[in-house]
Amino acid sequence: MNDIMQSFNSLDDDLLIGGANLHSRLFLGTGKFSSHEIVPRVLEASGTQVVTMALRRIDWKNPQENILTYLPKNTILLPNTSGARTAEEAVRIARLAQAAGCGNWVKIEVVQDQRYLLPDNWETLKATEQLVKEGFVVLPYMSPDLGAARRLQDAGAAAIMPLGAPIGSNRGLQTKELIRILIEEISLPIIVDAGIGRPSEAAEAMEMGAAAVLVNTAIATAGDPVFMAQAFRLAVVAGRLGYLAGLGERRIEAEASSPLTGFLQEG
Amino acid sequence: MQIIVNGESQEIPPECTVIQLLQDQAVTLKAAVVEHNGKILKQEHYRSTHLQTGDRLEILVFMGGG
């Protein structure tokens, strides 16, 4: 297995976003872990380079606690704007995250719907336009819609992050066909965010040509998050190799894999 | 003197600066970001910013998130 990972790493297949060369196409969220202490081991097992986190009011019972303490120094920080219901709130959170020393990457997340946590593409677009102007590397989380994705691309987004299924639902690629269209039609990297619940679903997204996947709940709530992080790492590499290799054609009827020039029925 | 910190009213001594407030609460300065009356307050201004009655502070840190 190490041989495969080594030969994969020697492939020139970096993902370029916001001036960064990423060899890992697995982005990780840091929410829902049973403790912050497990996070460094999960990150190491996953091989990830890009990690998301959220800005919240300080917990006075635990004023020293901060997720950044647990992240390796070279990690690219991707603060999200979770909690924002409007573009204005998302912009405010992005500026605060930058002031907190988080760099200039931001995952826009604008949600008004509290049941399914589906993003508001219109507010997301407005926040993207503003933050691109301010020099941020903007990765918008969005409902997979071609028109909205084109507008986000025109606004200067660095990548597009459509959801596979509602956040935290572990239901996989429910929006598969719409994501397929985005991959086909949008020249920016498409990063499937939200909903991926199993390694096989991450592999499937990568086989389709997704540039990367962002996983949180599936790893954080697994029986063994460190093992699951490894499983996702392998699945993302497997799916990517499958995509690069070029998948064989699908057909309705059989096409024999063994030669049919049999001899049993002859003379 | 009363101010509002993270949406809750709090009694602080007069002439209190932002840095004093943060240090009293044992906040790790490097990891926090402060909004003072709706505007981001840069760390270099924590020492020189004296709080006034009715001021609103938001003290935020990074938590796990997806």
Topology:
The complex is a heterodimer of chains A (267) and B (66).
Chain A: H1 2-10, E1 15-17, E2 20-22, E3 26-29, H2 39-46, E4 50-57, E5 76-80, H3 87-99, E6 105-108, H4 121-133, E7 137-142, H5 146-154, E8 161-162, H6 176-185, E9 191-193, H7 199-207, E10 212-215, H8 217-220, H9 225-245
Parallel strand pairs in A: 3-4, 3-10, 4-5, 6-7, 7-8, 9-10
Antiparallel strand pairs in A: 1-2
Chain B: E1 2-5, E2 8-11, H1 18-24, E3 32-36, E4 39-41, E5 56-64
Parallel strand pairs in B: 1-5
Antiparallel strand pairs in B: 1-2, 3-4, 3-5
Kindly describe this structure:
The complex is a heterodimer of chains A (267) and B (66). Chain A has 267 residues and is of the alpha/beta class. Chain A has a single domain, classed as Aldolase class I (TIM Barrel, Alpha-Beta Barrel). Helices cover 36% and strands 16% of the residues of chain A. The radius of gyration of chain A is 20 Å and the shape is globular. Helix content of chain B is 11%, strand content 38%. Chain B has 66 residues and is mainly beta. Chain B has a five-stranded mixed beta sheet with strand order 2-1-5-3-4, with no helix packed on it. Chain B is built from one helix and five strands; from the N terminus they run E-E-H-E-E-E. At the A-B interface, strand 4 and helix 3 of A face strand 3 and strand 5 of B.
Write a short abstract of this structure:
With 267 residues, chain A is an alpha/beta fold.
Feature tags:
heterodimer; A: 267 residues; alpha/beta; TIM Barrel; five-stranded parallel sheet; 9 helices; 16% strand; B: 66 residues; mainly beta; Ubiquitin-like (UB roll); five-stranded mixed sheet; globular
- CATH superfamily of chain A, called what? Aldolase class I
CATH topology of chain A: the name is TIM Barrel
In DSSP terms, counting alpha (H) and pi (I) runs of 4 or more, how many helices of chain B? 1
β-strand amount of chain A: 15-25%
**What sequence of helices (H) and strands (E) makes up the elements of chain A?**
HEEEHEEHEHEHEHEHEHH
Q: Based on helices, strands and strand pairing, what is the structural class of chain A?
A: alpha/beta
